[in-house]
Amino acid sequence: MRTLILGIGNPLWADEGFGVRAVELLHDRYRFPPEVEVMDGGTQGLFLIPLVRGADNLLVLDAIDFGDPPATVRVVRGDGVPRYLGAKKVSMHQTGFQEVLATASLAGDLPSRLTLIGVQPLTLDDFGGGLTPPVADRLDEVVALAVAELATWGVAAEPRSAPPLPLAPVEMARSAYEGRGEG
Fold first, then answer.
1. Higher pLDDT, 66 or 70
2. CATH number for 21
3. 79 in helix, strand or coil?
4. DSSP 165
5. What residues does 114 pair with on adjacent strands?
6. What pTM was estimated for this model as a whole?
């Protein structure tokens, strides 16, 4: 069973980058079996179709406008995931990712397990800004929720004893980009 853990978003636009920052932190803290891929999906949109179609399990980490108070975390499973990804567009990547899921579904290749762990953004219009403090404060919680969700799928997360290779260029790591935080 192939599992894809996908962080999506644009870290150049404040809280819009939450999914990327969450998957970065997950990757920094844990290692996974070879059949698990941890990926910074950024804003790749339709280019993610082959990866999603090839996954049996898909865990998405993202900033989603649920209409909740800022920094609220939600876990959505199964058929509800595409609905939330298209409910209220936070940025261009969401329309693209909703289309990725629709394409995989039409092709009969939608992952059998699909979970979205999302956080309600506070700020999206701060180009060049990092995560806002209340949203950044939810990173640890979302990583813990991701590890717990993966455990229900039979996917073990083992704490790392040494730093991993980065998911993205080191200049885009949270610590380098924001000048603080982990990564």
1. 70
2. 3.40.50.1450
3. coil
4. P
5. 58
6. 0.86
